[in-house]
Amino acid sequence: MKKLITLTLLLFSSYYCFSQQTLLRYYNGKQRKHFYTTDFNEYGNGKNGWVLEGPACTVYTAEDRGRSIVPLFRYFNKQTGDHYYTLRYEEYGRGGNGYYLEGPACYINMYQAPGSVPLLKYFNPYTGDHFYTIDRHELGRGGFDGYQFKGVEGFVYPANPQR
């Protein structure tokens, strides 16, 4: 029985020890666009009109298909200035509909895992901006400032300010 409990605790703790990092959220008021990255050096505290809004959530640093941790692909549309994030590579592949693949932004859970929360996806057709949040009260079911709720993109963890 002791071995079973030890093994269970070991497996459970390894689930949480997988390398994680903070996904940062930026906003550019002039462009009316949002941008998400795990690399603080991309925009730092803000440059070229981008302002750091803070941590969006906590994500993984690598893929682990055995635990359904998969890439969240980042696409960019030069014409509209929009960044689009999706688990579904087949949506645009290497590029399509004006978007080109920049690569994985990070790695997230495909399915709900202990302690994880939904990553909610919104789109504003007036500004062409995709917006992602874990706070369902931030935009609700959509309608706020023109944003429309598009569904759950995957599952992440609440941001930890100490990360």
UniProtKB/TrEMBL annotation:
Keywords: Signal. Residues 23-156 form the DUF5648 domain. It comes from the Bacteria. Residues 1-19 form the signal peptide. It holds the Pfam family DUF5648. This is DUF5648 domain-containing protein. It comes from Mucilaginibacter frigoritolerans.
